[in-house]
Amino acid sequence: MALGVSLALSPPSLLVGQSPATLSVSFAGEEGATLPVASHRGYPSLPAAALLSLGWQADDRGTEVFLRHRTGIQLAFVPGSPFLAWDGDLFQMAEAAYRFDGQLHVPLQLVVDLFPGLLPRAYEWDRERRILRVAERPSGPFNDPPTSSSAAEGSSPPVLASPPPPLTRAPRVVIIDPGHGGSDPGAIGPGGTREKDVALAVGLELSRLLAEDPEVEVRLTRDRDLLVPIWERGERATAWKGDRPGVFVSIHANGLPGRPEVRGFETYFLSEARTEHERRVAAAENAPLYQGGGEDRPPPSQDPLLAGILRDLRTFDHQLWSALFAELVQREMGTFHPGPDRGVKQGPFAVITNALMPSVLVEMGFITNQEEERLLARPEFHRDTAEALARAIQDFFQRYPAGSDS
Question: How would CATH label the architecture of 172-399?
Answer without folding.
Answer: 3-Layer(aba) Sandwich (3.40)
